[in-house]
Amino acid sequence: MAGKKINLTEQLKKYFGFDTFKGNQEAIIENLLAGNDTFVLMPTGGGKSLCYQLPSLLMEGTAIVISPLIALMKNQVDAMRNYSEEDGVAHFINSSLNKSAIDQVKSDILSGKTKLLYVAPESLTKEENVEFLKTVKISFYAVDEAHCISEWGHDFRPEYRRIRPIINEIGKAPLIALTATATPKVQHDIQKNLAMVDAQVFKSSFNRPNLYYEVRPKTANVDKDIIKFIKNNPEKSGIIYCLSRKKVEELAEILQANGINARPYHAGMDSATRTQNQDDFLMEKIEVIVATIAFGMGIDKPDVRYVIHYDIPKSLEGYYQETGRAGRDGGEGQCITFYTNKDLQKLEKFMQGKPVAEQEIGKQLLLETAAYAESSVCRRKTLLHYFGEEYTEDNCGNCDNCLNPKKQVEAQDLLCTVIETILAVKENFKSDYIIDVIQGRETSEVQAHLHEDRPHYDSFQTFCRKQGVRYKGVMQWMHRHNRSVGSLRLEVLLEKNGNDSNLKSSLIEVSGQSFPIKNSCISSRNIPLDQYIKGAILSFPDGVSISIRETTPSALMKLFELYTQVTGNPNV
């Protein structure tokens, strides 16, 4: 094949009906036809499948495509058969086939009809399949979704690690590995494991300018928010990803009850129903598919207009791959993610019981995901940087952080406080513990390690104690007026420096209503406060403004300082 010059554009038109190649497709195909190992990094919707489909039709023998999902294989085989007059041009071997079906596949391969054979890694390693493939002329091997090889990839599968030894056993042929998501670390891991370190690497830009990225806080009203979003985007196809099968079923039912044409999809459903729901979505008989990550890999539906993540994904690779299913035709694609730190904590718990190395990798991936969700930096810049690509624009104009920038604050002092605390506890504790220490929460764990009374751990709680104010009384006031400990931490009675040194009083205003703190702390003794007042107003993200009027400016400033340390909200 290397000695023949083929007009690839003509062949592309002949077999697939396209006039031109996209991006690196032609160069990739030429490299493979020349008998060279090839590594392809191409974003979702970039046309990876064509990079091995066309060469398989042009080369002598049968190409072996190793693919992770049965549904993906079926979809790809059906697509190839649509392009060819010969049904036997593409086949798959996996656990869904009975013996007679497998015999038919082998017959078509031996007769030379089959140019593409899709196999799952589990099927590839079966002894009877290895022995059969030894007798077949192999044109090349293709490893699709190659990130599954790496423990640092978002969908690691141990059986992928055995691919190279099996290939060596079957017989030598060029190898092409393809993935839509790979960090430099994952790329190196793939190439090393497949013994293709010297392969020609083709890397396309991971930037999808048409995709809009947004991260929203996940509240108790998340179901209502999703329903409202779908209602505001009528007759548009969308995918909603949930982490658990149970949530997939529940959310699909909720959407149906609200008049939305939605169906569930997950690996626990019976095969016929799952396939039917997938086909109905592809044929636009339904608008929305609610699914686990089992859905979508390799699914060719170009007009998905939104992808919603009900739960934060386990990694940025997974997030990128799943959001990449929107707007594959270059049109509108909205990527909405609902985020709460509690979801990350759940994912950490799920990892318990797994090998330590796997847990550490999983935690690192979760931290990177959390950093992305909580960042105020351009989402596109963050994503592309993660995949080793530099985005030089200051404003992408198509993400929530660029369109609605978050207020920037000076955080040097806050960062110093965090670092000092981490060093003081000798880097031995998790982030939740560090937060407890900084905030002065006297939890059983903090007390057990004697970290509650150190001077640099001063907090609202210890501040109250030093000022002679009943901390529990203040907390009761906060509870009574529906103010959470986690959001405010600022009510305190402060000492007046004046004729009456025993005077301790404060007036707190919430949304225009005044609440003198008396019974829970120390009586105001009916002294007219306005004669002594110096004060300020604190504003909060929920729109509530709180005014504290008191008589010790230095103590008030100390309170502000503590408040900003705890909440990161210095809007004074």
Could you please describe the fold and organization of this structure?
With 572 residues, the chain is α/β, with parallel strands linked by helices. The protein folds into three domains: 196 residues, Rossmann fold (3-Layer(aba) Sandwich); 193 residues, Rossmann fold, CATH 3.40.50.300; 110 residues, no CATH class. Helices cover 40% and strands 16% of the residues. The strands form four sheets. Strands 3-4-2-5-6-1-7 form a seven-stranded parallel β-sheet, sandwiched between helices. A six-stranded parallel β-sheet has the order 8-13-12-9-11-10, sandwiched between helices. It has a four-stranded antiparallel β-sheet with strand order 17-16-19-18, with no helix packed on it. Strand 14 and strand 15 form a beta hairpin.
Write the layout of secondary structure elements.
Layout: H1 8-16, H2 25-33, E1 38-41, H3 50-58, E2 62-66, H4 70-83, E3 90-93, H5 99-110, E4 116-119, H6 121-124, H7 127-133, E5 138-143, H8 163-170, E6 175-179, H9 184-193, E7 200-203, E8 211-217, H10 222-231, E9 237-241, H11 245-257, E10 262-265, H12 271-282, E11 288-291, E12 304-309, H13 316-323, E13 333-339, H14 341-351, H15 356-374, H16 379-386, H17 400-403, H18 412-424, H19 431-439, H20 444-448, H21 460-466, H22 471-480, E14 494-495, E15 504-505, E16 507-510, E17 513-516, E18 534-539, E19 545-550, H23 553-567
Helix pairs in contact: 2-3, 14-15, 18-19
